[in-house]
Amino acid sequence: KIMWARLLETLLHEPPKPQPARPSAGAPSFSLEQILHGVREKQFEPFFQPKVGLASGLVLGAEALARWRHPAHGLVGPNAFIAPLEQSGKIDDLTLLMLEKAAGACSAWRERGLELTVSVNLSLVSLADTMLANRITDTVRSAGLDPRYMILEITETAAMTEVAPALENLARLRMRGFGLSVDDYGTG
Question: pTM to 2 decimals?
Answer without folding.
Answer: 0.81
